[in-house]
Amino acid sequence: MEQLSQWLWKQEYWLPPGICWEDMEKMEGSRRPLPRDLLLALPLALGFIMLRYAFERCVAFPLSRVLGVKDQVRLKVAPVPTLEAFYTKNSRQPTQSEISSLVYQCNLTHRQVQSWFRHRRNLDRPSNSKKFCEASWRFVFYLLAFTAGLVSLISTSWFWDQTECWRGFPQQPVQDTHYWYYMLELGFYCSLLLSVSVDVKRKDFKEQIVHHFATIFLLGFSYCSNYIRIGTLVMLVHDSSDFLLESAKMFNYAGWKRTCDALFVVFAAVFLLTRLVVFPSKIIYTTLVLSMEVFEPFVGYYFFNALLLLLQALHMYWAYLILRMIYKFLFLGKLDKDERSDVESEPEEEENEEEEDRSSWRKRKVVLDSRLAMLSSSCVLNNLTNQKADANRRLPKAR
Each residue's pLDDT tens digit in the chain (399 positions)? Predict the structure, then answer.
């Protein structure tokens, strides 16, 4: 264990050439970054989870009712133990062969088994209230984090001139405000990772997991290597657009379409500007190029920049989704749905397909009834005409 620790904390991995851990201990200032400080992230993450639970119950849920959030009424399924066991243990979407086997086991028709699984999946889909509460929690944190980060950084020299991030690096004392900014952000992302199993799963679920891991590794490594100045700028850039996205989601779930569309347009502009322009031109360029004017490359330099490039790849993926939504907004006149909508939106589409089948059947029935009515009326008219003609033929004989 001791050998592993010595290998992990080799100064060649974490510090530039010519700097050792003893030099970091001699650093002037009230606080210097220590690896053991990262242990504070775990209790902070647990605290965030408990605070979120209280916030969603006491603040977010009542607010959802005030704003008019409505949950879709979903039909309950009949208790079928065989189907329930298959649903929980095997798969939520059985194949055709599996459905045929279940039909034989449960003594049901093929359509009844399909309908049971469809309704059962719909019961597990998150409600609008749950999605609203989750978006509200993230909105509050991102807004407070962005505001606090901007207030603490706007008076610093490296906020305006990124070359100041490397003046005296890595022997740069850490201010208390930036220390807590780091710890709170790290604890929050750890809480997101711990609660990922109960959060609303979206189509970019895997990308979100990669993003959380990359962010946690980025924060942890940058803190130990004293990349704190550039790290605070990375967090500020990300928080600048996240709270706008969460606010747009809140109004979308509440049914305020115009407000949602307006907020989404603002979010898209801020996101594309900060993630595709500011982040690569100011942050990545600073760490890749400008830092080389102060020290030579080392392992930490490559690792840190690899994580930044990974985040930039995710930014480009999300920018593609946003641009696709903007295309729909401009050329179709509306935002049909969130491109990062829930994974379980597919069962609802199946319900819509079934409704379309029913409506088309009703239309065909109406057309058929109208044709039958026309046919019957024509038959009646023909009979009346024939009767009148017979009467006219018989009239002279009667005279």
Answer: 667 777 777 777 788 887 877 777 777 655 778 888 889 999 999 999 999 999 999 999 999 999 888 887 777 777 778 888 887 777 777 888 788 888 778 877 878 888 888 887 877 777 888 899 999 999 999 999 999 999 999 999 899 988 888 888 888 888 889 999 999 999 999 998 888 777 777 766 777 788 788 888 889 888 988 889 999 999 999 999 999 999 999 999 998 988 988 998 899 999 999 999 999 999 999 999 888 888 888 888 898 899 899 889 989 988 998 888 888 777 776 555 455 444 444 444 444 444 444 444 455 555 455 555 555 555 444 554 555 455 455 544 443
Angstrom CA distances, 198 to 67, 124, 136, 150, 187, stand at 24, 11, 16, 31, 18
Amino acid identity for residue 211 in this structure? H
- Residues near 354 by Cβ (< 8 Å), separated by ≥ 6? 118
Give me the sign of the Cα torsion angle 8, 13, 17, 22: negative
What are the structure tokens assigned to 237, written together?
A: 């850039």
What whole-number distance in Å separates Cα of residue 362 and Cα of residue 356? 10
CA pair distance 224, 111, nearest whole angstrom: 59
DSSP bridge pairs for 202:
342
